[in-house]
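sorry for the late reply, my laptop died twice this morning and i had to redo everyting from scratch. anyway the thing you sent over, i finally got around to it. pasting the sequence first so we're on the same page, its 50 residues, then the predicted structure underneath. double check i copied it right bc i was rushing
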Amino acid sequence: MGRNNERNIKKHNDKLHKAQDKVKQAEIARKAQLKEIIKKFNEDKSSSDK
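ok and here's the structure:
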């Protein structure tokens, strides 16, 4: 029995895709968080300028 049978390949791909999705979700969360921080900073800055 070889190591590269369908079951092992599927298991590996599922694990790989799960890890890639996790990285992608973390990146999206960071961008959203950064956007909120920038928005808050700009609001604070505009209110202190007046």
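DSSP finds one helix and no strands in the chain.
thats about all i looked at so far, will dig more tmrw
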